[in-house]
Amino acid sequence: MSKSPARIRLADAAFALFDERGYEQTTVDDIAERAGVGRTTFFRHYRSKEAVIFPDHDRLLELIRDRLATSSHRTALVAVSDAVRLVLLHYIEEGDLARRRYALTSKVSALRDREIASVARYQRLFREFIAEWMGDPTKSASLRAELMAASVAAAHNHVLRRWLRGECADPVAELDEAMGEVLALFPAPGARTDGADGGTTVVAFRTAQDLDALLPSLRRLVEDGPGR
Fold first, then answer.
1. Percent of residues, the chain, with pLDDT higher than 70
2. Residue 225 in contact with residue 193, Cβ under 8 Å?
3. In 31, 64, 108, 153, which residue has its Cα 20 to 30 A from 175's Cα atom?
4. What is the CA radius of gyration of the chain?
5. Rounded Cα gap, residues 202 and 195, in angstroms
6. What is the pTM of this model?
7. What is the CB-side half-sphere exposure of residue 97 using CA atoms within 13 A?
8. What does the pLDDT look like over 149-167, one tens digit per residue?
């Protein structure tokens, strides 16, 4: 998502001032002055001081909805993985800005609370999509959708934090691997988990691992069954 020069200058000015003066001591007027723009220009790009810090979650959620909407029942899980990857790629494209945000939200509790609320919006979107994909209105299915959405969010956040801390050289490949583990925990709607039908359910996902390296693990999953 491209940003206007003024929006970028405002973000750079804000984080520089947060480093110099602290978040609480920095005002909107301070940020506008440092960026060389007026208050009107600031509010044209950001609703508040807090909004400078966080990515455009509304736009990211729209991108996720668009990706999920293009899926069929058969490709729903692939769409979930692709949608999660879109969010991670946005943070990666931000580069140093994402790391500066991480450092700031780690220190300011109000910002950390807002970040948690933002994560809840993503999780709710995935939960609604997964529940519709399951097509089962029962309480147990609702719980599975909730658990699956929470696992999806947790996998993304785990990989993102590792990348932000400099502990992950290839976050996209690591996310694909993590999503493979998450999706393998949940059988497709209508799949038998007791082996009574003698069939095999396979969930497809993308991974950076070589197929030969994956086959032993897949074989163990098929032979052992999900309940063992």
1. 81
2. yes
3. 108
4. 21
5. 13
6. 0.76
7. 17
8. 999 999 999 999 999 999 9
